[in-house]
Write a structure and sequence with these properties.
- The complex is a heterodimer of chains A (264) and B (278).
- By secondary structure, chain A is mainly alpha-helical.
- Helix content of chain A is 69%, strand content 3%.
- Chain A folds into 2 domains: 147 residues, no CATH class; 72 residues, no CATH class.
- Chain A has a two-stranded antiparallel ribbon with strand order 1-2.
- Chain B has 2 domains: 238 residues, Rossmann fold (3-Layer(aba) Sandwich); 38 residues, no CATH class.
- Chain B has a 6-stranded mixed sheet, sandwiched between helices.
- The N and C termini of chain B lie far apart (47 Å).
- The chains are: A mainly alpha (264), B alpha/beta (278).
- Chains A and B meet through helix 8 and helix 9 of A and helix 2, helix 3 and helix 4 of B.
- Chain B: It comes from Lacticaseibacillus nasuensis JCM 17158.
- Chain B: Belongs to the ABC transporter superfamily.
- Chain B: One of its GO terms (molecular function) is ATP binding.
- Chain B: One of its GO terms (cellular component) is ATP-binding cassette (ABC) transporter complex.
Chain lengths: 264, 278
Amino acid sequence: MNKLIIGRYLPGNSWVHQLDPRTKLLASFYFIAIVFMANTWLSYLVMFAGVMVMIAASRIRIGFFLRGVRPMIWLILFTVGLQIFFTTGGHVYWQWGWLHVTHYGLINGAYIFCRFVLIIFVSTLLTLTTQPLSLADAVESLLRPLRYLHVPVTELALVLQIALRFVPTLMDQTTKIMNAQRARGVDFGTGGLFQQMKAVVPLLIPLFVDSFGIAEDLATAMDARGYRGGDGRSKFRVLAYHSRDWVAGGSMIVLTALLLLTRR
Amino acid sequence: MTQAIEIAHLNYQYPDTPRPALRDVSLSVASGEWVAIIGHNGSGKSTLAKNINGLLAPGSGTVTVGGELLTEESVWDIRAKVGIVFQNPDNQFVGATVADDVAFGLENRGMPRPEMIKRVDSALAAVNMTEFATREPARLSGGQKQRVAIAGIVAQTPDIIILDEATSMLDPAGRQEILSLIRELRAARPLTVVSITHDIDEAALADRIVLLNDGEIVETGTPAEIFRHGEELIDLGLDVPYAGRLKAALAQRGVAVPAAYLDAEGLVDYLWTLHSTM
């Protein structure tokens, strides 16, 4: 069940860990956006060098990042395959009916592969070095301007925070119910697909009922502690930019400049 | 002495139920007193607690907390004065970490952050949870979670703390932990405690016990007075403490035992004194 936990935060004290979550979130999105601007071998090399510097600064072993690629490998191979077989142009190496492998096809396939790996590495770096809670804070802080459009940002952030807080609680509950149902002879994880789906029903229904009970208890407790909506609340956890956040932002600008110099 | 809680002719009925949950309940709790409210399931104990801080609005009758009448306007003031620790340690933990949870009530009141940090630190120190400040609730025991819940209340410096079966889901060690914490807190500053409980040993710690049955107060008295009714307590769905049962059994066999309530230690003392004079 542990694999299900959102994100796979690795506690640490590195330079990347200490960055403000907003910086990390924005930088990751920015990096993912500019990956699509790379269109030469040299520009991809620049991007890879950039990611390697970030990974080195996080002091996390490269193995964790390679493991991040593994669950996506079939999607990647499928997309790369499409690129290789359906891109036309350049020297034709092989042809069979409407399938053909061309020079441009191979190059495009390789580029797509690099893009996937870069994007996965960066998003893995974000989740490995940032606690889900900090990410929720970052989202709240970045979306704050939407309050002027009457979007209930603080309420949504509290909902997100409570959801994250109750993931382990519901996980415990699931294990408990599974054991209780096993004791009554339910067989999880064996039989055909249909059988397994049927076995999940006696798990989901009590879990669903339980979550309503929890929600009601929690609402009462929040009421008793004086919660009356997002307005007028102060915040215990605050985010603050430090000099390292400016360094990180500056590095992104340098990376962009190098990318622009090396792309066609 | 001023009255911390003054309840007069309180009636309450849940919507869509045939019978009222509370009938003409009148009760006053002195400031600094420890009152236990006991009764079987459905006797109205928790309903009474929820009426005290306005989680439920009284059907008729009045509730006055610290001299302030409970109304729609005063309810937030009163909630700041009355902290409730609920039964399930998990389902009242709002924050993602221990410190966040303790701060939740303060955030709701819009307290400035520097003051909040001071309050959170001292509340955690008061319940001996300082080293757990950054822990997530999943990594705490039930007793520790209840201690955090108490810290969340202590941080708001209320006058009254209500334990709504707060120890019923804990193991015996956790239960002891919480009860001795409450005693420590009371020693440090005046605190009125209302404990709603099934546990007779917890009730025995109170200055006064209120016995509730079918929404009515059946009897009020010191633990010694209440526990003298051995058999009747069982009829009301309560368990007599072990020492009380032993005493009744001894009396039945013709051993002279005092009529007043004795806790386990008192009874042991009494028995060995009795034996050595024979």
